[in-house]
């Protein structure tokens, strides 16, 4: 009897991991992710192929309309050419200024997406925008009250808002081919 | 709690005549500064006119500035925008700096935006570049040829084994191995 | 109307005078019982007359035409020759009205040049430049874009957002759209004469062509029968037939029915489209195919 019980447990332990491993992408569990051994050369060939395709498309100007996710004033915005978006809070650029948005987190076209880790390679993409309006938001009411404590405060505020028009999103560099010296793109000599 | 903002006029970002696509055009076309020459409430306005107005006009040649002294009336800035909007700012007892700030605000605005709540802080004419998702997007084309009712496709996608099934399986396997052991 | 307003002013003054007189002669009380009724009366009369008719901005006290014309050029970032710009803003109807006025007063009027020739010149500059810009589009699309941008409403919209509405010299009020459109053309010609054609073309590009921002080609140009149009287009490229195939469908026989149709030639996808019926889906697929063929997307 004891032998049979031990066998049951043994087979149970053996039979368990298989269906769980099958369901892994769909269910969360604490079973470690099964890893596979990757042939480095094979892998390199695959991604080089993809990168070449993207570069070719950009060189032939067949990528179509591009979109980008830019980081601005602590927030991320998805923009494409001709878009308008609002930056809230105090922000120095003035109306009429043309600025370049350098923190690009992601660029995408119809057939590809370049995801930055966290930013895409510096000097690869140019995103330009014009400040078209600086205004104040509607009056927001900030009202606080504590019951039975004779405490009541009311504040009114208008938040500065800056509107930006995105003029240009363009891939100017080559994917996966950073220049030897980086960090000088925005410097003026 | 005040909910007055709910009843405000609201809408989406408006940019008059695609400003900024070609070049930026200052949307303030003319401004009239109205003030009294001796009333105290106009003091800040008078100081502004004396010391800062020339610079403002020089820096913004595209804005026509008019001065309109009126006796015994409160100081006012009235602004006219290219889209036809008019805005009126009361400057009663404002200091020189206050007036400078308000005038600058009017200069950078594109219309009268007071009492207007923006519903979204973003506007795009191209919401999706890679195409929006549809139920057909990642569908297996082979499913087009399937005949219904189809037992295989009608099953749930994730079907866990029931406890009974598992026990039965274990029982069967133990039986087989026991038999083997016996042999 | 104005006569009525004058009489209103007169009567209200009389009314006030009378009220004041009674105050002086009547009992001396600190409560002025005449104020509210008088103001009420004035208010009701004001309502009866209705709102003031709009007046041209140039009739206001704070108006300086020279300053306005100077600011117009500076606002747009262009250097205009002052006299040419002024001529571009002067319409024939204004000149005629001025001459008429001078004749009645018996005064000699100095020569006023109207913008008639400038309008013609500007029209040609705009038209030529648009054709040049849309050269890469197929002929019918280019024509549709050209007509869309040079339509009276579009030109008037651009002109009024430049601040031309108030500074145009014309006898009509409010200014009509056709006049605004003509003035835009005249301003383009004035810029060409003040500087050069290249500058005028940049001006047109920045102010007129930018109006296409956010527009798709099919918002402006739509073939009436997309399938026929596509057949002809493919014939020109040596493809004689294509085959529509139903790629997906769902909710047939309901109001939310939808179909996805792809157009194929020799197992190659030409275009794909959706619709609530197969015919509509075919047509949208044809539109997609036309766009892909035209712009090699």
UniProtKB/TrEMBL annotation, chain A:
Pfam hit, one: Ribosomal_L21p
Superkingdom in the source lineage: Eukaryota
Record has Ribosomal protein as a keyword: yes
GO molecular-function term, one example from the UniProt record: RNA binding
GO cellular component: mitochondrial large ribosomal subunit
Gene Ontology BP terms: translation
Swiss-Prot/TrEMBL keywords: Ribonucleoprotein, Ribosomal protein
InterPro entries found in the cross-reference section: bL21-like, bL21-like_sf, Ribosomal_bL21
Family: Belongs to the bacterial ribosomal protein bL21 family.
NCBIfam families registered for this protein in UniProt: L21 (TIGR00061)
Protein name per its UniProtKB record: Large ribosomal subunit protein bL21m
Organism: Zophobas morio
Taxonomic lineage from the root: Eukaryota, Metazoa, Ecdysozoa, Arthropoda, Hexapoda
Automatic annotation (TrEMBL), chain B:
Pfam families according to UniProt: L51_S25_CI-B8
Any one GO MF annotation of this record: structural constituent of ribosome
GO process annotations (BP): mitochondrial translation
Entries under InterPro entries matching the protein: Ribosomal_mL43 (IPR039927), Ribosomal_mL43/mS25/NADH_DH (IPR007741), Thioredoxin-like_sf (IPR036249)
Cellular compartment(s): Mitochondrion
Listed SUPFAM superfamilies: Thioredoxin-like
Keyword ATP-binding in annotation: no
GO annotations of cellular component type: mitochondrial large ribosomal subunit
Keywords assigned: Mitochondrion, Ribonucleoprotein, Ribosomal protein
SMART domains for the chain: L51_S25_CI-B8
Keyword Iron-sulfur: no
Domain Ribosomal protein/NADH dehydrogenase: start-end pairs: 37-110
Family: Belongs to the mitochondrion-specific ribosomal protein mL43 family.
Protein name: Large ribosomal subunit protein mL43
UniProtKB/TrEMBL annotation, chain C:
UniProt-recorded Gene Ontology molecular function terms: double-stranded RNA binding; ribonuclease III activity
InterPro entries linked to this entry: Ribosomal_mL44_DSRM_metazoa, RM44_endonuclase, RNase_III_sf
Keyword Transit peptide: yes
Keywords, in A-Z order: Mitochondrion, Ribonucleoprotein, Ribosomal protein, Transit peptide
Keyword Ribosomal protein carried by entry: yes
UniProt superkingdom: Eukaryota
GO cellular component, one term: ribonucleoprotein complex
Gene3D superfamilies in the cross-refs: 3.30.160.20, Ribonuclease III domain
Pfam families noted in UniProt: DSRM_MRPL44 (PF22892), RM44_endonuclase (PF22935)
Domain Large ribosomal subunit protein mL44 dsRNA binding intervals: 221-294
Main localization, broad class: mitochondrion
Record-level GO BP terms: RNA processing
Subcellular location: Mitochondrion
Residues covered by the Large ribosomal subunit protein mL44 endonuclease domain: 64-191
CDD domains linked to this entry: DSRM_MRPL44 (cd19874)
Annotated family: Belongs to the ribonuclease III family. Mitochondrion-specific ribosomal protein mL44 subfamily.
Name of the protein described by the UniProt record: Large ribosomal subunit protein mL44
Organism of derivation: Zophobas morio
